[in-house]
Design brief:
This protein has 253 residues and is of the alpha+beta class. The chain has 8 helices and 9 strands. Keywords: Nucleus, Ubl conjugation pathway.
């Protein structure tokens, strides 16, 4: 059972409530969540910051969740075609940014107008090229997340993302604020070795830096709505599936 399933069970069953006090459950969950840090480093952090309590570490240490998708829902008002039959010449356009993270330091990214219940089925490493699902690398330092993904093609473009991880309750880690979103060009030499670690290639780049004069660096100011975490078991029932006619704007909280 996942830590969140254990927590749900403890809310309705007294035996489970006492069972989850066993530190083994929390230790296993912590070592899996922060496996990039290594066992030795995790033990050092446990003793220095969380008084030797794996449960406290799980609840208080920033952690990217891997049991679902982070979704950013963005809406725009666009002008339509003014005709006889159209009483409202403007309409609302909605699109989403999707991110799925893995403990290995890799993540999957997709930008689409499709609802989360449809996108969740293809957010994996086996997705077809036509699905426009891209893979990248990320790092987590305290609550700051640095991520980068490469858009291949005739003019390869790297998307650099900076986020801040937070939670609506202790241990939730269910929100990510978009601090910056920058696209830049890459040269051929950089592109050839990107599979190893695209994030390492762009480390130290400035926001206005590009390595391809045909692809200028652009710092995007739109589409920066905070990401909301949706567990896999809730993708079918999430309110983020609602069309703009029923939910014109979503407040992440």
């Amino acid at each position: 059972m996942s830590p969140y399933d254990l927590g749900k069970a403890s809310c309705v069953c007294r035996k489970w409530k006492y069972t989850i006090r066993n530190p083994v459950f929390w230790r296993n969950a912590c070592l899996k969540a922060w496996q990039l840090s290594g066992v030795v480093e995790n033990y050092k952090i446990l003793q220095s910051r969380y008084e030797g309590s794996w449960r406290k570490m799980w609840l208080l240490r920033p952690r990217i969740r891997i049991d679902g998708l982070y979704v950013s829902r963005n809406t725009y008002i666009r002008a339509g075609v003014a005709e006889w039959k159209i009483t409202n010449p403007v309409h609302i356009v909605c699109y989403y940014r999707y991110m799925r993270f893995f403990p290995s330091g890799r993540f999957i990214y997709k930008n689409s107008s499709q609802k989360i219940k449809d996108v969740a089925k293809i957010m994996n490493f086996r997705a077809a090229k036509a699905d426009c699902v891209f893979t990248g690398h990320y790092t987590l330092s305290e609550e700051k997340v640095e991520a980068a993904v490469l858009y291949p093609g005739l003019r390869p473009t790297v998307l650099r993302i900076r986020l801040r991880l937070r939670g609506t309750t202790a241990g939730a880690n269910n929100r990510m604020d978009l601090l910056s979103l920058v696209t830049s060009g890459m040269n051929d030499n950089e592109v050839n070795g990107h599979d190893e670690d695209i994030l390492g290639v762009v480390e130290g780049w400035q926001d206005d830096e590009t390595h391809n004069p045909d692809v200028p660096a652009v710092s995007h100011k739109r589409g920066l709505t905070p990401f909301v975490f949706v567990p896999f078991e809730e993708v079918e029932t999430s309110v983020l599936n609602l069309p703009v006619e029923k939910m014109d704007y979503y407040v992440p909280g």
